[in-house]
């Protein structure tokens, strides 16, 4: 299995098929909605993408740490590099903000239904 570095994961990601499909399905069910509802759905789609990206970054960091620890002879240099490479707390903060935004958008959509 190919390992993805944490730096690669931090790059912006595209909207996944699941994000786009779910939001598009809701958009179709709300046919006849105003432009404002469609804008809220666009923001929701973006929020879902950002949430997935932040979660992927945290997951990649943990995978890198576990991979380094599982090596037969982990090196102090590798562990130090992992400790300094990415601030995982910043990624958790980004995840928390993105999730809060998803919840806020869901409330906005629900209020317009």
What can you tell me about this protein's structure?
It is a single chain. The longest helix is centred in the middle third of the chain and has 36 residues, at 35-70. The chain is built from 5 helices and no strands. With 113 residues, it is mainly alpha-helical. It has one domain (14-111). The model is unreliable at 1-15 (pLDDT under 50).
Helix content: over 70%
Q: How far from one another are the termini? A: 44 Å
Please summarize the sheet with the most strands.
none
- Would you list the SSEs in sequence order as H and E? HHHHH
Quaternary organisation: single chain
Number of helices: 5
Q: Tell me the fraction of residues in β-strands, as a range.
A: under 5%
**Whole-number radius of gyration?**
18 Å
Shape: elongated
Number of strands: 0
Report mean pLDDT, rounded to a whole number: 79
Count the domains: 1
The low-confidence parts are 1-15
Topology, please?
Elements: H1 6-9, H2 17-29, H3 35-70, H4 76-85, H5 88-111
Helix pairs in contact: 2-3, 3-5
Short description:
This protein is mainly alpha-helical.
Keywords:
single chain; 113 residues; mainly alpha; 5 helices; elongated; disordered N terminus
């Amino acid at each position: 299995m190919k390992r993805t570095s944490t730096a690669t994961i931090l790059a912006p990601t595209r909207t996944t098929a699941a994000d786009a499909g779910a939001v598009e399905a809701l958009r179709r069910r709300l046919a006849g909605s105003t432009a404002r509802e469609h804008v809220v759905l666009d923001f929701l789609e973006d929020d879902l993408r950002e949430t997935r990206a932040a979660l992927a970054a945290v997951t990649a960091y943990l995978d890198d740490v576990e991979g380094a620890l599982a090596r037969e002879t982990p090196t102090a240099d590798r562990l130090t590099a992992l400790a300094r490479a990415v601030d995982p707390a910043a990624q958790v903060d980004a995840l928390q903000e993105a999730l809060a935004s998803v919840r806020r958008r869901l409330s906005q959509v629900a209020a317009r239904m």
